[in-house]
Design a protein that fits this description.
- This is CD225/dispanin family protein.
- Keywords: Membrane, Transmembrane, Transmembrane helix.
- The chain crosses the membrane at residues 29-56, 76-103.
- With 110 residues, the chain is mostly helical.
- It has one domain (27-104).
- The chain is 63% helix and 0% strand.
- Helix 1 runs antiparallel to helix 2, helix 1 packs parallel to helix 3 (65-96) and helix 2 (48-60) packs antiparallel against helix 3.
Length: 110
């Protein structure tokens, strides 16, 4: 028989939830933090907001799992909202031709 994984909280007998004080796997918060941070650096500086919320969630995961889970959900919601806003801005820029003007202005010599 194998020993239980010490990284996960054990359910309380009777299905009452998790044992208070038991270690919790922080994998999902770490993955979320990496995704938000990479997106912030490579795609959208506005994603810094979701990165900060992800950091707070990761820190809280060790002491207050309930709050950390709420922050986990909020982070993904903020992440999605920022992407939707960015896509709408790009569509508007392309539709109005402003994107072409912005890109052409950098190569135009006077």
């Amino acid at each position: 028989m194998t020993s239980p994984n010490p990284n996960f909280s054990a359910p309380v007998p009777g299905g009452q939830g998790f044992v208070p004080g038991a270690p919790v796997s922080k994998t999902k918060w770490i993955v979320q933090l990496v995704v938000c941070a990479v997106t912030t650096v490579l795609c959208s500086p506005l994603q810094l907001v979701s990165t900060i919320i992800a950091i707070v969630g990761l820190v809280k995961a060790g002491s207050d799992v309930e709050s950390a889970n709420k922050l986990y959900k909020v982070t993904w919601i903020v992440y999605a909202i920022i992407w939707v806003i960015a896509i709408i801005v790009w569509v508007i820029l392309i539709a109005t031709g402003a994107l072409g003007a912005i890109l052409d202005s950098s190569s135009t010599s006077y």
